[in-house]
Amino acid sequence: MSRRGHNRMPAGREAFSTPMVMQDQPASVPFSRLRSGRWLVNALIVVFLFTVSYAINESNIVATERHPDETRWLNRAYYIEDFADPYGKTWQDYYLTRGQPPGGSYLIGLGLLVQGQPLDSNGVWDFHYGDDWNENTGAVPDRDVLLAGRRTNAVVGALVVVVTFIAASMLTNRIGGLFAGLFLAYHPLHIKLSTQALSDELLALTLAVTFVASFKFARQPSFGWALLMGVSLGIGGATKLAPLALSFVLAGFGVIWLLWRHRRFGREALRWPASRQGIFLLLQPVISGFIFVAMYPYLWVAPIRRSLELLDFRRTEMASQARIWPWAQVDNPKDAFMRYGEQLHDAASSTRHFQQWILDQLGYSVRNPVSFDFIIVAIGAILLLRIVLERGLWSPHAMMALVMAAEVGAVTVGLGVDFYRYYLPVLLVNSILVGVAFGMGSESIRDLYSRKWVAASSPESTAAAASWKSQEIGPERAS
Amino acid sequence: MSTISTTPANIAAYVHHRTAKFVTAVVVMFALLAPPSPVTASTDQPGNRSETDAMQPAGFPERDEDREIRVYDKADILTDAQEESMENDLDRANGAGVEVLVYTRISDDSREDSQVFADQLRAEWGVESGVGDDDGLVYLVSVGSAASEMDSIVVSTGGNTFPIRQLDKATFEGIFDNEVTPQIEDGEFNRALLFGIRRVLNFAEYSPPDPSPLTPVQDHFRLAAAILAAGLLQLAVIGYFLVPALRERRLSFVPATRSLAIYATVLGALGVGTGIVAIAGRSTFGSLTSLGVVIWAGCIVPLLIGYRSRRREQSAADHPAIARQSAIGPLNV
Description:
heterodimer, A: 479 residues, mainly alpha, 22 helices, disordered N terminus, B: 333 residues, Diaminopimelate Epimerase, Chain A, domain 1, 3 domains, 4-stranded mixed beta sheet, 11 helices, 4 strands, disordered C terminus
């Protein structure tokens, strides 16, 4: 039996399709359906997507305009070195350590070290003053250092595309995954953030890994997947704080799961190992919290108090940003939701970018290419909802959908300022939804084709073939 | 009733008086109709040396009652916008705990005399973050009345001004000599002061404070943490073999899952304990060792346990007879 849920065929299908393939035409089993063949095809797609995405990013590294925030991340690259001195001056309580968790700084530092660049190339950019002043006072890094920082993110951005492919493939199929990866790789916002020395792509990577781990965990609730989920949320939290909220959502889901099991199976359901899934979900805040604190020596002295201060400081900073740039102020979640349309459909669009690229290749020019992004995303969302309803609340699909929805919810509620980089997690979810739309679309086409093919080759199977639909799959068991 | 004498002397005096009144009236009229001086007409242009010369106060100046005013541009070398921007910077510096004051004047004093004036200004005007703190900083710009060669800038600092976070006196002097003074020589007064203020501000806001020294209790914890961490490291290695040796009576690189679980639980608990002691004593060695041990015991060993369990379940599923046999055997641990 296939390991992927969507290929878990109902009895009806196995009854007619397996013998037909195995007995009538054994030589015609597609290579891609063999286990080794599937791995090879997947590996080829992964290499293809990584190459495409990295090539796009690399070609934009020089062209992307400089953002002052890049200088801040490059300035703090030395954090990776100073982790070895957790009680030294770097980790004392002051503006920079309170300003941002260090995950992005570690990444940039690692990238600079790998590329042989210094970790202390520039001073601190002071946002109270303009470019001239900051350039004069050494707050701008050398070009080589800037490009090395950007190249680090170009690699991370390409990895995000690969993990997005894996996530969307799990929800539907390889075609869905491929489209999800391409959609993300060609999205102007993703390209921009993958070619700036910022921390947002690392956040996206940790979120994408969390999506995949949550799916795998719901399928096989082992400590390994629970650990991966918690660790990626912890690293995400040490990059941008918000993913820590997801760990509490997962813990809440674990409580609901345990209550449901208790109601259905009695006290036996709460004993180990029957309760494993719920317990591991409950442990998510502990695992992610531990990783978050472990990565952030500033917190070691007083983990809870300083974490709360950190959250408070971030809130103040966001309010201050909204005050300085009133046009960017986001009043409420509804306003945030409306801005998704502006930023991810109107201002930057994969479909429009792709049209422009194709037309450029063909030598045509169109004045106003049309964006289809949100139409596809909306279709994907509806189809994912359908999958979740069909497979049940405890299915891996539902688990991944829950984590994705929780992340979008966290961004929507927490968005205080309309800065382009804050939309990347939403774009990541959108890409997976695009993958769902294309994956389910390809399933429908395949069903249609197989029905016709079966009808033509075996008239007596017509009735069975006509009555089968790949999307109609029974609900999965809890564990 | 008085009568006016018509002697020649009186007539001459009368004519002189009328002429004087006429001239005065004409002068007043012209004064009223005359266009305003450049200084009052354009508030965003600094004045020049001769016009502002007469404005210098006699004796030692008094500080304004409003302590929020920290820029005293007596030489009128800054525009209003520059003054406002500088006031904002000094306000920020005050927020960061550094009290800075700027004073400009027209003067041909020597550098030594200017230094005396600046020190006196800092002391008498109470330029410090709190009463008696003696940590203020005064920039005094003296503009020569006739020639730019006489322009100078001096800085007066208190006994406790430095260090400002990571800015020590030597670093400050380097900034002053290399970035501030050359600007004065070029006649860039505003720029010189900006370098002087904003460099300090950058250190005050964006450089870390020094860690506070350890208390005697923390010193004891530090020592204890170092000893515990050294022991923990040894236990992590030896315990891996010791637990199965005691439980299973055998030495193995791949202990049974239960032995591993006992090992991980004990080691993890000891790691957490040592970590707490190490944090209390600010011990780098203790903290990093504990962190490594907790990750080993809490993440890697459980993964090993999971892997071993899965393999056992798999082999049990593949060979039910062996599974039944081992289920009652002594090695089922």
